[in-house]
Structures are given as structure tokens and as C-alpha cells.
Design goal:
It is a multi-pass membrane protein. The protein is mainly α and 300 residues long. The protein has helices at residues 2-17, 25-40, 45-66, 72-83, 86-101, 105-112, 125-172, 184-207, 211-221, 230-241, 271-299; strands at residues 244-246, 249-251, 254-256, 260-262. It has a two-stranded antiparallel ribbon. Strands 2-3 form a two-stranded antiparallel sheet. Strand 2 and strand 3 form a beta hairpin. The two termini are 12 Å apart.
């Protein structure tokens, strides 16, 4: 039952303490990634692959060695804690929700800016609510379920591989002149690592809401989304909540016509707590499935 103990330890630490306020390992990793990118980036795919390997493989190897210690399950749990963002995601969503409830649109726009990369200064209430729900659903996979999946599959090495790869994708995985080639490996590896957990996350969303609509939205709409993993997660989540998400948004001054996700009415401020509740219920479902599966393995 060491797997269950590791998972519970990581989730409990995240619940109690949230993100480490100072000296978070990912902050130091991000600085190293920024420093290395400036020295390696010559618009080369091979240099991008080299940078990825230099940054990710040594920590994964150290984690593999540490997880073999007698109390390796504690190492796995602590690694999961540093990779999880369940409490932080919930707090960000609640901050936007509270600002909307108090009619403070300036604060709501500022708070949603912490969650999304699109421009927020001219958003109305529906746009703020829609952007928040979209981000919560998508980041439910990136900040919670992807980390849980890789911890359950491979312990500390798996969860560290996942989180560092996800961080490099967030830093390097852009389709622009600077990162189109250098960041290609980082983007593709992140897509690969999320292939299974994103679909399990989408299935969890679907099972815990309007299941038929969620599955139909997933099947019909996910392929039109730009990200192969965010598409299923967001389409299933929108359908599960009975909402219509997606649509136009402004990025760097350019209006982008994005596909529609889900089915139903537009989002409003009351849907932010609903999205957080769906993510929380999905987390409980994952914990139950992991615990049950671990018990079966132990018995047989």
C-alpha cells in the first residue's frame, strides 16, 4: 500500500500548505531553463533536445535513486507535493469568483490574468467567467491529474519527469520565431506525457456531470482544438457542466476565433465554483481508484 500512502501524503501536503511561498524548486528550475535557453537557442531542434535532456534527466535520475531508499514512499509523496497545484488552482478560481460576486470587475480582470495568457483588460463578466472556467478545467489536468498519473505509474521519477517537462513546455513550447524549432522537442514530449492522463481527466469530468453531453462534446469538438490534450479535457469539462465555452479571445492584440466547446448556456460567475467542485470530485474519484487498485495489487 506504499503507493496509496505516497499519493495521500502528496495530496495532504498540498491541501495543508499549498505552493511553497519561497525557494520553490520549480522557480529555480525555471531560472536555469531561462539561462540555458539564452545560450543554446540558435533555432535548432537538436539544441532544444540537448537543453531538455540537460535540464530534465539529472533530476529524474536523482529521484530514481532517492525513491529506492527504505522510506522511498515518503520521497514519492514529497515529489508529488511539489508537482501538485490543486490548492493554488482552487484559490485562484475563488479569487476571481469573489471579485465577480462583489461586482469588482477591475479586480476580477486582474485575477483572471493570473490564470490565462489572453488579454483581460476589456473583458466583461461573461468573458471573465468563461476564461476562468476554461483555465480551471485545462489546468485540472496539468496541475493535478497528470502529476497523479505519473506518480502512480513511476513514483518520484515519473512525477518529476512530468512536472519538469510540463514546465519546459510552458517556457519553450511556443509557435513563434524564437521557439518554433528550439522548443519543438519540449512541446512534443509534453504532448506525449499528457496523452493518457488528459483522456482519463476528460473521462472523470464526463462521469461526474452531464455524461452524455460531455462525451458527445469530446467526440465532436476535441479534434478542432489547437492542443491535442487540452481539447478532450476542456470539451468534456464544458459538456459536463452544461456550458458553452471557447469562442473568440484576444492574444497579443490579435482577435483569435477559437472553436466552440461544450453545449448549453454561456458561463457566469456561479459556474466558477461549479468547475472547482467538478475538479474536486474528480480528485476524490482518482484517489478512490488508485487506492482500490493498490489494494488489489497488494492482495494478489
Amino acid at each position: 500500500m506504499s503507493l496509496t500512502l505516497s499519493i495521500l501524503l502528496g495530496v495532504l501536503l498540498d491541501r495543508l500548505f499549498g505552493e511553497v511561498p519561497r525557494w520553490h524548486p520549480l522557480v529555480g528550475f525555471g531560472r536555469c531553463a531561462g539561462w540555458l535557453e539564452k545560450r543554446l537557442n540558435t533555432d535548432s531542434i537538436l539544441r532544444g533536445a540537448l537543453g531538455w535532456a540537460l535540464l530534465v534527466l539529472p533530476p529524474v535520475l536523482l529521484a530514481a535513486l532517492a525513491s529506492r531508499l527504505p522510506a522511498g514512499w515518503i520521497v514519492d509523496g514529497i515529489a508529488l507535493y511539489f508537482a501538485l497545484g490543486a490548492r493554488a488552482l482552487s484559490e485562484h478560481g475563488q479569487d476571481v469568483s469573489m471579485a465577480l460576486q462583489h461586482g469588482d470587475m477591475e479586480e476580477a480582470r486582474r485575477r483572471v490574468g493570473y490564470l490565462v495568457s489572453r488579454e483581460t483588460t476589456q473583458m466583461d463578466e461573461e468573458q471573465v467567467a468563461r476564461a476562468t472556467v476554461e483555465s480551471l478545467l485545462e489546468n485540472g489536468n496539468d496541475a493535478i491529474f497528470g502529476a497523479l498519473f505519473w506518480c502512480a505509474l513511476a513514483g518520484a521519477p515519473g512525477v518529476i519527469l512530468y512536472r519538469l517537462a510540463n514546465t519546459l513546455d510552458a517556457m519553450w513550447g511556443y509557435r513563434n520565431a524564437r521557439f518554433e524549432r528550439f522548443g519543438k522537442v519540449a512541446a512534443r514530449i509534453d504532448d506525449l506525457l499528457n496523452l493518457i492522463p488528459a483522456r482519463l481527466c476528460a473521462l472523470s469530468y464526463a462521469l461526474l456531470g452531464h455524461t452524455h453531453t460531455a462525451l458527445a462534446s469530446w467526440r465532436a469538438q476535441a479534434g478542432s482544438w489547437s492542443s491535442p490534450n487540452a481539447g478532450p479535457v476542456m470539451a468534456a469539462g464544458a459538456g459536463s457542466l452544461g456550458l458553452q465555452l471557447g469562442g473568440a479571445a484576444i492574444y497579443e492584440g490579435v482577435r483569435e476565433a477559437r472553436p466552440t466547446l461544450g453545449s448549453g448556456r454561456p458561463a457566469n460567475s456561479a459556474d466558477i465554483p461549479r468547475a472547482l467542485c467538478l475538479i474536486a470530485r474528480s480528485l476524490w474519484l482518482w484517489l478512490l481508484v488508485i487506492g482500490f487498485g493498490d489494494a488489489l495489487v497488494t492482495l494478489y
